[in-house]
Design goal:
Blueprint: E1 7-11, E2 15-20, E3 25-32, H1 36-52, E4 57-65, H2 70-79, H3 81-86, E5 91-95, H4 100-113, E6 120-123, H5 127-134
Length: 138
């Protein structure tokens, strides 16, 4: 189970995005395998919510997310990573997937991004640990 935030921006069986403007916090919850089109739309929604609400903290709850293709990984690197690095986000906590291929894809994206500037990214096994870290002062 995951923490419920006050506002839901988008919800489907495969993907949910919530946010809390007061805490400058966003949350994405991924469930299972998504088509390439749905995956791209979901990442665009996350990026949009980060920008629109000027969120500085994000919890990516990937526990049930399945691996995405090399083509999708490349698309995310070219279209999402630059906006995340240039945007307001300062901390991202990831609850890693049980799918080792998906974990490898995320690790690859982080390594390929290189210098993250002011942004920190950390993996956590437990959501409460992730939330404590996210909510620390900058």
């Amino acid at each position: 189970m995951f923490e419920q935030l006050p506002s839901t921006y988008y919800q489907s069986n495969a993907f949910t995005v919530q946010y809390d403007q007061d805490r400058s916090l966003g949350l994405s919850v991924w469930q299972g395998k998504m088509s390439s089109e749905d995956l791209k739309e979901a990442f665009l929604l996350c990026s949009h919510v980060m920008e629109k609400y000027k969120l500085t903290r994000w919890l990516a709850h990937d526990r049930n997310m399945k691996a995405f293709s090399e083509e999708d990984t490349q698309w995310i690197f070219e279209n999402i990573v630059p906006s995340m690095l240039a945007g307001p986000l300062r901390r991202m906590a990831i609850i890693p997937s049980k799918d080792k291929e998906q974990v490898a894809s995320v690790d690859f994206l982080i390594q390929r991004a290189g210098d993250l500037g002011d942004m920190e990214v950390k993996n956590f096994e437990e959501e409460n640990e992730a939330m404590r870290w996210l909510m620390q002062e900058f």
